[in-house]
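Hi W., the cytidine-5'-triphosphate complex you wanted:
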Amino acid sequence: MKKVITYGTFDMFHQGHYNIIKRAKEYGDYLIVGVTGDSYDVGRGKLSVHDSIATRINNVKNTGLADAIIVEEYLGQKISDIIKYDVDVFVIGDDWKGKFDHLKQYCEVVYLERTKNISSTQLREENFKHYNIGLIVDEPKDNQIIAEAQKVSGFKVSSVFSEDRKVLDEFQDKYDIENAYRNLDAFWKDTDIVFVKCHLDKRADYIEKCLKEGKHVIADPPFSLSAKEHARLFEIAKENHVALLDNVKMVYVRIFTQLLWMAHAGMIGDIIRFNCSISKRDRSIVNLFDDLTALALCPVIKIMGKDYQSIEPKVVQSEDGIEYASILLKYETGEASINIGNKIRVKEQLEIIGTEGTIRLKDNWWKSNYFELETIDGSDIKTYSMNFDGNGFCFLLSEMMTMLTNERTESMGLFPDESNTIVKVLEYIHQNV
Ligand code: CTP
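Structure:
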């Protein structure tokens, strides 16, 4: 019996998919179709897939051509499958020409011509609502927002606004953005979602204007250093039925959800201590103390909760502002310590110490794709990981798409009251140093 195997995502099942499955079958007597699993797609940055794995498998099954359907769960699985199922021919569309030649040592490799003028990408574009993202910037840097938005179907960065003409021109040249504006009314006409990416002193003002204009907003935390003003922005978002999201990517990355689950499900016992440190990387940019502190407070509030009992800040200041801070938050059952190095450098790490184990994230913990778990029973340190390219902003956008689809305006990554708590701590620090 001659066995054939072919693979695909088979999202929004179309004629091209049917054709390749049918032609693959003609290469042998028994056809195995591999359908990509959700985790595999997320891991390789394919966040645009619309149909669930159940639907995609069902659609392949309904062709009546597959003798077996398997799920492709990881990079490199194709080799194991070919060996395991004793496959004779591997078939794939010629958009992959040459990419699978290394499989020739295991079986015959056939590239078939793609069916013209149809693809899942095209169907997703045609069938689903699209949102234009506009950026408000004060420097010609996009922090990978444009590239990350391309990974999630339904979003496109189409406009940029800046008060500064030089910044605007430079930004548009650098990123080849369709529309550039210095007039907010014109900017809003082209925009559904605004990313307010500017310095703290103007952030709240822009956020408020955008929300009142009925635009969904993403902005770096803190939105303001006044807890009252910060909370008011969430109220304005609610009144206008629009979403307001903190640009904290880590809470949307699967590895963090897993860590949170482990910490809260008691896998390291009772949490007694949380330590985290962060330093400013780019010395050329302005004082970043508030942005760094907000970022470090985010995992504190997610893991230790909002109900701290006291805050003890210790800071080193210069005429440029706070250069270093060590902040201790005391909770009923434990404490959280964060070290912020604005000019003074601190080693970046995050550690959650429990009565039965410790969770550690090293180096760039806010964009880490792995963490370690060490339990006190002396067993080996276990590593939990998930691969992803880029800075994780696509995962935030993916949550945004879920919110828009379900007409939900509050993010479940960082709830408004958690965001407000972060600013309350920041406000306290500024009032007490
Ligand atoms: N395929 C094809 N002709 C098309 C589209 C896809 O022959 N018009 C083939 C691909 O080459 C692959 C298989 O169908 O062998 C599954 O492709 P998949 O990536 O799931 O479909 P696409 O439509 O290419 O999806 P996307 O637009 O998301 O890349």
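The radius of gyration is 25 Å.

W.
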